[in-house]
Write a structure and sequence with these properties.
The chain has 286 residues and is of the alpha+beta class. Among the domains are: 67 residues, OB fold (Dihydrolipoamide Acetyltransferase, E2P) (Beta Barrel); 69 residues, Nucleic acid-binding proteins (OB fold (Dihydrolipoamide Acetyltransferase, E2P)); 34 residues, no CATH class. The chain is built from four helices and 13 strands. Strands 3-2-1-4-5 form a five-stranded antiparallel beta sheet. A five-stranded antiparallel beta sheet has the order 8-7-6-9-10. It has a three-stranded antiparallel beta sheet with strand order 11-12-13, with no helix packed on it. A hairpin with a 4-residue loop joins strand 9 and strand 10.
C-alpha cells in the first residue's frame, strides 16, 4: 500500500514536471515568434542615421527652393562684382548664375574700366534665360531709372533739380540730369530775356521741372521759375525798405530815348531823361 502511494506521488510529480516543461516550451515558441517581429520593426542605428540624413537633405532642399527669388526682365537688383573680363563684368545678385554687364558701361572716355572686383552695384535685368546662359544686366538702365525717379519726385514736390548744360538746340538748351536729357527753353533761362545762350554752356544749373512724361521721354525745365521767386522775394524786401524821398543805388538795365531803367533791388525804376542831369540831355546814353 505504501508503495502504491509513493508511485502515485512520483507519477503526480512527473506529470507536473511535464506540464511545466510544455508550458515553458510554449512560452519559448511565443517569444521566438515575437522576437523576429520586434527585430523587423526596430531599424538598426545605421538605418536610423541614413533616414535622418535623407530627411536633413530634404529639408535643406525645400528651404533652398523656398529661398529662391523669382527674377524677371526689368527688375532692379543689387549685386557684387565677382569678376571682370573682356566678355563683361560678372555680378552675383543671388541668382543661380552670375549676371553679365557689358564692360563698355563701365569704360570711361579715357578707356579705363571704372569698376573693381568686390564693388556693390545696382543693375536692371535686361534678359534672363531658363537654360545655362547667364542673365544680361545693365548698370546704365539702373542709373537711368533712378534718375527718372528723382526727376519725378522733384516734379511732384515742386522742388528744384540740378543738371549740366551739354549743348544748344533749336529754341533752347540741352541739359543732362544724371544721364537723362531734358530741354530748357530759351524763354525759361532767366527772368530777363537772354540773347546769347553760349554763356550757359558746360555749366551746372538749377531749375524746376515744369513738364514731365516718362512714357514720352519728355522733360521740360525752367530756370526762370527760380529766378522769378528770387526777384519777387527781393522786390518785397525792397518795397518794405524804401519810400518817397529815399536816396537809393541801382544798376542801369536798359536805356531808351526817354530815359533809363534802373534795377533798385528786384524792381526796375524809370529814371526819366529830364531827371538825369541839371542840364538838358538829347540822348540818355550821353
Amino acid at each position: 500500500m505504501t508503495n502504491e502511494v509513493i508511485n502515485e506521488t512520483e507519477e503526480s510529480e512527473q506529470n507536473e514536471t511535464s506540464v511545466a516543461k510544455e508550458t515553458n516550451t510554449e512560452n519559448s515558441v511565443e517569444i521566438a515568434e515575437e522576437t523576429p517581429h520586434l527585430q523587423e520593426t526596430q531599424p538598426s542605428a545605421a538605418e536610423e542615421k541614413q533616414n535622418s540624413n535623407e530627411m536633413d537633405f530634404g529639408a535643406i532642399l525645400e528651404e533652398f527652393e523656398q529661398d529662391q527669388i523669382s527674377y524677371h526682365p526689368g527688375d532692379l537688383v543689387e549685386g557684387k562684382v565677382v569678376g571682370i573680363s573682356e566678355r563683361g563684368v560678372l555680378v552675383d545678385f543671388g541668382f543661380k548664375s552670375e549676371g553679365v554687364i557689358p564692360v563698355e558701361e563701365f569704360t570711361t572716355p579715357e578707356g579705363e574700366v571704372a569698376v573693381q572686383k568686390g564693388d556693390n552695384i545696382e543693375a536692371v535685368i535686361r534678359n534672363i534665360y531658363s537654360g545655362d546662359a547667364p542673365p544680361i544686366l545693365s548698370r546704365n538702365d539702373a542709373i537711368n531709372r533712378k534718375s527718372w525717379d528723382e526727376i519725378e519726385k522733384a516734379y511732384n514736390g515742386n522742388q528744384p533739380i540740378k543738371g549740366f548744360v551739354t549743348g544748344k538746340t533749336k529754341g533752347g538748351l540741352k541739359v543732362d540730369i544724371d544721364g537723362v536729357e531734358a530741354f530748357l527753353p530759351g524763354s525759361q533761362v532767366d527772368s530777363r530775356p537772354i540773347r546769347n545762350l553760349d554763356s550757359y554752356l558746360n555749366t551746372e544749373i538749377e531749375a524746376k521741372v515744369i513738364k514731365f512724361s516718362r512714357k514720352r521721354n519728355n522733360i521740360v525745365l525752367s530756370r526762370k521759375a527760380l529766378t522769378d521767386e528770387a526777384i519777387n522775394a527781393k522786390k518785397t524786401e525792397t518795397l518794405n525798405q524804401i519810400g518817397q524821398g529815399y536816396v537809393i543805388e541801382g544798376t542801369v538795365r536798359n536805356l531808351t530815348e526817354y530815359g533809363a531803367f534802373v534795377d533798385i533791388g528786384g524792381i526796375d525804376g524809370l529814371l526819366h531823361v529830364t531827371d538825369m542831369s541839371w542840364g538838358r540831355l538829347q540822348n540818355p546814353g550821353d
